[in-house]
Amino acid sequence: MKIYPIETGFFKLDGGAMFGVVPKVIWEKSNPANEKNLCNWAMRCMLIEDGNRLMLIDNGIGDKQDAKFFSHYYLSGDDTLEKSLAKYGFHPDDITDMFLTHLHFDHCGGSIKYNKDKTGFETVFKNATYWSNQNHWKWATEPNMREKASFIKENIIPIQESGQLKFVENEGELFPGFSVMYANGHTDAMMIPHIKYKGKTLVYMADLLPSIGHIPLPYVMAYDTRPLLTLAEKQPFLKRAADEEFI
Fold it and tell me: What percent of the chain has pLDDT over 70?
């Protein structure tokens, strides 16, 4: 098995929203904000090469939204999904499995692109199975008012229409060496991949721990739909991570 970090660029979000009840005087020491109180965040994905399987975990914000949309997020950096895949000798057509931890736009926006004449949408990874789960799919396609802006229909519906969508049925092992844990604090049924790698367990944290600055228990995003549940999920996870030396 080989694992590659896939950089898709940076975007900015409000520091107060990212750190919830934690005072700015504390969080700005590790995450300095600009004059608009915005902090810079990486949209870093993961590529797993294992035999004939080439799995991408999340895919960033994509490039199909309009200028008004992107103006809210101040995209920066030279990295794109395509450039990062090419760095390791891969192309989007090589991806066999597109695993989506959840369907917020900064994690799944790279799933879909315009077709050639811009009359509709098509999948970016035409040879891949797209993985979500039934509970989260229903949550995203029938969104609550709090999260509606994060679930953009053109990121989501074309996946189902393509016939490439499959649902993870339960927590536990999906493929040999690849298992899934659900977390429900940030959004309903977000999936946290656990990968067996060189005798260790490597965990892709998605938005359970969106940055190293969120490791302390009270550091929970205001974006989370159930912040107390996030805290309750973090505590046993971090203990297990320390006990078992997760990466």
Answer: 100
Are the beta carbons of 225 and 188 closer than 8 angstroms?
Answer: yes
pLDDT at residue 231, as a whole number: 98
| 2-244 topology per CATH | Metallo-beta-lactamase; Chain A (3.60.15)
pLDDT for 28: 97
Place 227 in a pLDDT band, splitting at 50, 70 and 90. very high
- The residue whose two tokens read 């509606």 is 148
Contact yes or no for 8/80 (Cβ under 8 A)? yes
Residue 196 β-bridge partners: 201
In terms of Cα–Cα distance, which of 114, 117, 185, 100 is closest to 151? 100
Contact assessment for residue 59 and residue 8, using Cβ atoms and an 8 Å cutoff: yes
Query: Is this prediction's pTM over 0.85?
Result: yes
CB 136 within 8 A of CB 180: no
Give the mean model confidence (pLDDT) for residues 152-168.
99
Half-sphere exposure of 92 (CA within 13 A, CB side): 17
